[in-house]
Write a structure and sequence with these properties.
Layout: H1 8-16, H2 25-31, H3 43-58, E1 61-62, E2 73-74, E3 99-100, H4 105-120, E4 125-127, E5 137-140, E6 152-162, E7 166-173, E8 176-186, E9 188-194, E10 200-206, H5 207-220, H6 231-251
Parallel strand pairs: 2-3
Antiparallel strand pairs: 1-10, 4-5, 5-6, 6-9, 7-8, 9-10
Bound molecules: zinc ion.
Length: 261
């Protein structure tokens, strides 16, 4: 996911739309000081972001959770360096993603390389299929800056439950440069996952981390953010999506891609 990257008036518009069923005050407080796309404007929120994430991580506890997923398991990770973000509508963004069964140096290196790509492209989250590795792995750092905030790696994540309250928030995606639009999602999620050593844990997320997580989690299921846009919102970006599809097909004649409806 790209830094939630919006002018203040857009944030306010997004948060006060009639479509919004409810907004947690925590999220509203969080997004209010997130004013611009420019890196230089982010400094003021970084310390707050770090404190909030530290609170969230304090919730983190070990739990023996059953793995309900039926996705196949890979025992050796392979990829070609250097990694780069695949643009929509690359078919690998829609391909099934395997669970990871190898908690080794390759996994650690892949996560590290994903962080490098994410920071370079000024994102706050990245899912492995976005760099062409079809496995259930995501990385994120809500601060969006190397050396700041907390780097979170979730291996084989699953959503245990989602809050009933939802909110609208303008999202971007590294696979869709310069496309931003509102997506409605639950404000809170409880997640189980494994860390880089294979240790299982659960974590409750709310606010911006919940937003980033759900966006990246969708990538692991081959779901892209425009799949979740309300019809009138999708209309505002359809032309840009079609332009990306046309450009991809011109560069990759005969590719089987799923086009926007
Ligand atoms: Zn994305």
């Amino acid at each position: 996911m790209q830094a939630a990257a919006v002018a203040p008036q857009v944030v306010r518009a997004a948060l006060t739309r009639p479509l919004t069923r409810s907004i947690s005050s925590k999220l509203a407080a969080h997004v209010a000081p997130w004013p611009q796309r420019q890196r230089t404007a982010r400094g003021g929120v970084v310390a707050q972001a770090r404190n909030r994430l530290a609170d969230l991580l304090a919730d983190l506890k070990s739990e023996d959770v059953d793995d309900e997923s039926t996705a196949p398991i890979v025992t050796k990770l392979e990829w070609q360096a250097p990694l780069g973000v695949l643009p929509y509508p690359d078919p690998r963004l829609r391909a099934p993603n395997s669970r990871i069964g190898c908690f080794d140096d390759d996994l650690r290196r892949l996560a590290e390389e994903m962080f490098e790509v994410m920071y370079k492209d000024e994102g706050v989250g990245l899912a492995a299929p976005q760099v062409g590795v079809n496995v259930r792995l995501m990385v994120f750092n809500e601060a969006g800056e190397k050396g700041q905030g907390d780097e979170i790696v979730l291996v084989n994540p699953q959503i245990i439950n989602s809050g009933k309250m939802t909110n609208l928030f303008e999202e971007g995606c590294l696979s869709f440069p310069n496309i931003y639009a509102d997506v409605e999602r639950p404000s809170k999620v409880k997640v189980k996952a494994q860390d880089l050593n294979g240790k299982k844990f659960t974590i409750s997320l709310s606010g911006f981390p919940a937003r980033i997580f759900q966006h990246e989690y969708d990538h692991l299921d081959g779901t892209l953010f425009h799949d979740r846009m309300a019809a009138p919102v999708l209309d505002t970006v359809r032309q840009q999506l079609v332009a990306m599809e046309d450009a991809y097909l011109a560069a990759n004649p005969g590719a089987q891609v799923r086009r926007v409806a």
